[in-house]
From TrEMBL:
Keywords: Phosphopantetheine, Phosphoprotein, Signal. Pfam families: PP-binding (PF00550). One of its GO terms (molecular function) is acyl carrier activity. One of its GO terms (biological process) is lipid A biosynthetic process. InterPro entries: ACP (IPR003231), ACP-like_sf (IPR036736), PP-bd_ACP (IPR009081). Residues 1-22 form the signal peptide. This is Acyl carrier protein. It comes from Candidatus Cryptobacteroides faecigallinarum. It comes from the Bacteria. The keyword Transmembrane helix does not apply.
Length: 120
């Protein structure tokens, strides 16, 4: 699997929708939707790559529903290091109090998406 990380700026550009008061063509709408889907898939791929590096589990065995503790075998220290690397890579802050909400790769993905639109 080719390793491909994106910057937060590139991700936000792909996620950004046109303002509501601006008319865009159907082709532009389709392109915006495809870019959003692509950005979300790229974020998921980069989380999986990072999870693989921290867990030692092959990327092809990690899925959105993989749990960090049971499926990936991350202990608390490994998980904290993994989250710290995610925070640095994506330019977000995940409070320790929210770690319990992040049970699966999908949970982390869904948690990061809205943070990309907020200042630290």
């Amino acid at each position: 699997m080719k390793r491909h990380f994106i910057t937060v700026a590139v991700f936000l550009a792909a996620m950004q929708a046109a303002p509501a008061n601006v008319a865009i063509s159907e082709a532009e709408q389709t392109s915006a939707i495809e870019n959003t889907v692509s950005a979300r898939e790229t974020l998921m791929e980069s989380i999986i790559i990072l999870a693989s590096e921290h867990s030692g589990i092959s990327e092809d065995k990690i899925h959105p529903d993989s749990t960090f503790d049971k499926d990936l075998g991350m202990d608390s220290l490994t998980f904290i290091e993994f989250i710290s690397d995610c925070e640095e890579l994506y330019g977000v802050k995940i409070p320790n109090a929210d770690f319990g909400k992040l049970l699966t790769v999908q949970d982390l993905h869904d948690y990061i998406i809205p943070l990309l639109h907020k200042p630290l």
